[in-house]
Amino acid sequence: MMAGKFHIVVEGQDDLRFLMEYLGHIGCPLPFACFKDLGGKSLLSGHVQTIRQKLDEETKVIVIHDADEDYAENRKETEGILGNLNVPLFLFPDNKSEGALEDLLEKIIIPEHKGIFVCFEDYIKCLKEKQNGYILPDMKGKIYAYKEAVGALKENPFNPHHWDFDNSALTPLKKFLTKHISGT
């Protein structure tokens, strides 16, 4: 990939950490500037002026957010916020489906650790059976439990020893990053 200045606008700290590790894995020249959109796409409008300034400085800018429950609506809303700015947009998990970073992460866990999710599902089943009104963990909780179980919280949570960065589920993201960061 070609070296150059670029900014990646993300939703949160996990997105930032994951992308930094993944960009290193695919050979992106580091360091790169990256800033996050505190609180998700709802606050993206507060960064439009900064994005415009970066583009005026000939800095490449890309936006990577979660698709959440409605891919098409989220893309439309985010593109509306960005207006006429020529900024590439990628929506996790694969730039075409609903979901989030955590959905992508679930697909790229190391195969030998898939049993952790079986245990997690048993935990959720147990909570449901108790019928005490317990709040069931969401996908973020599931991924957190995985990172904790493999010891990733004590180190880099996206250490390649815990994630399959060559998994085909990452192909759409790799193509997007390669195209828009390298300029090819």
Characterization of this structure:
This protein is α/β, with parallel strands linked by helices and 184 residues long. It has two domains: 1-100 and 166-184, Rossmann fold, CATH 3.40.50; 109-163, no CATH class. The chain has helices spanning 13-25, 48-56, 71-82, 101-107, 115-130, 139-149, 171-182, and strands at residues 6-10, 33-36, 60-66, 89-92.
CATH overall fold name of the largest domain: Rossmann fold
**Helix and strand sequence:** EHEHEHEHHHH
Estimate what percentage of residues fall within beta strands: 5-15%
Basic shape: globular
Question: What order do the helices and strands come in, and which of them pair?
Answer:
Blueprint: E1 6-10, H1 13-25, E2 33-36, H2 48-56, E3 60-66, H3 71-82, E4 89-92, H4 101-107, H5 115-130, H6 139-149, H7 171-182
Parallel strand pairs: 1-2, 1-3, 3-4
Characterize this entry briefly.
This protein is of the alpha/beta class and 184 residues long. The protein has two domains: 1-100 and 166-184, 3-Layer(aba) Sandwich (Rossmann fold), CATH 3.40.50; 109-163, no CATH class. 43% of the residues lie in helices and 11% in strands.
Task: Give descriptors for this structure.
single chain; about 180 residues; alpha/beta; Rossmann fold; 2 domains; four-stranded parallel sheet; 7 helices; 4 strands; globular
